Amino acid sequence: TVFKANSYNAYVNGKQVMLDASSTKIVAVGEKGTVYLPRSFVVNTMGISEDSLPASYVYENTYYVAINDAFASMGKKVTVSDKGLIVISQSVIDDTDTLDTLYRALM
Q1: pLDDT digit string, tens, across residues 23-41
Q2: Measured torsion, CA atoms of residues 32, 67, 59, 83, in degrees rounded to the nearest 10
Q3: DSSP H helical ranges for 1-95
Q4: CB distance 17 to 102 below 8 Å
Q5: How far apart are CA 20 and CA 44, in angstroms?
Q6: Whether residue 17 has pLDDT greater than 80
Q7: DSSP letters along 90-103, please?
């Protein structure tokens, strides 16, 4: 699963989806290594149960959750690149060439 910070699109299992089909103002946010996604997207698209999610916070009338811990409980790792690329995968991606290639592919 791949996101770009401040983007309303995500790529889940190779398919482009919107974080919220009703609004292009709902975006992925990454800050200091923590990723925030709309709660409804995490539950409905990513398949994480409501019970396993941390508390939400509201930003512009949308409930967001910090998802790093929720994905960690599923054995997934979250990588946030310097350019704002957010990758959820089986392992942390340290290779900057790979991250740059992914970032360019999403432009």
Answers
A1: 888 888 877 778 888 989 9
A2: 40
A3: 39-44, 68-72
A4: no
A5: 10
A6: yes
A7: SS----HHHHHHHH
Question: How many other CB atoms are there within 10 angstroms of residue 9's CB atom?
Answer: 15
Tokens of 11: 């790529």
What pTM did the predictor assign? 0.81
Distance from C-alpha of 4 to C-alpha of 1, rounded to nearest angstrom: 11
Q: Which residues pair with 12 in a beta bridge?
A: 15
**Nearest Cα to 25, choosing from 54, 61, 57?**
61
Q: Please, are residues 9 and 19 in contact by the beta-carbon 8 Å criterion? A: yes
Q: Which two tokens stand for residue 6?
A: 């401040």
Average pLDDT, whole number, for the chain?
86
| Residue reference for tokens 């930003």 | 59
pLDDT score for 99: 92
Three-state DSSP class for 51?
helix
Burial class (CB in 10 A: 0-12, 13-18, 19+), 50: exposed
